[in-house]
């Protein structure tokens, strides 16, 4: 998160967060070694630019990208993580590095995106 005062005296705030959620299946999880189950990571990247003018927040831009989510699943408000077997059906989806700074534009809202690395 960064901020700066504009020449007109307003406060400009830029937030850029990457959240990584590690998930396992609630049923039928694949045992990958004697010590654990398969884990899928879902990466959520959010960017928000806000202007503070006269004591009020004025959102300027807001972008969210979810990497490793099955966008073909029903729109039920949940994230549907892709596990190893699920990734086979995503070969035609756009691939992005979920940890790259500028991947959010490649992952347009509602776009099917597969991670290039876990």
List keywords for this structure.
8 strands, elongated, 1 helix, two-stranded antiparallel ribbon, 118 residues, 4-stranded antiparallel β-sheet, 3% helix, mainly beta, 46% strand
Question: Can I get a quick summary?
Answer:
The protein contains 1 helix and 8 strands. The protein has 118 residues and is mainly β.
Description:
- This protein is mostly beta strands.
- Helices cover 3% and strands 46% of the residues.
- The chain is built from 1 helix and 8 strands.
- It has one helix spanning 84-87; strands at residues 2-5, 11-23, 31-33, 36-37, 40-53, 56-67, 94-96, 113-115.
- The strands form 3 sheets. A 4-stranded antiparallel β-sheet has the order 1-2-5-6, with no helix packed on it. It has a two-stranded antiparallel sheet with strand order 3-4.
- A hairpin with a 2-residue loop joins β5 and β6.
First-last Cα distance: 24 Å
What can be said about the biggest beta sheet?
4 strands, antiparallel
Percent helix range: under 10%
Strand order of the largest sheet: 1-2-5-6
Number of helical stretches of at least 4 residues: 1
Q: Round the mean pLDDT to the nearest integer and report it.
A: 84
Radius of gyration: 18 Å
What is the number of beta strands?
A: 8
Based on secondary structure, the structural category is mainly beta
Spatial shape: elongated
Low-confidence stretches: none
* Helix-strand string: EEEEEEHEE
Percent strand equals over 45%
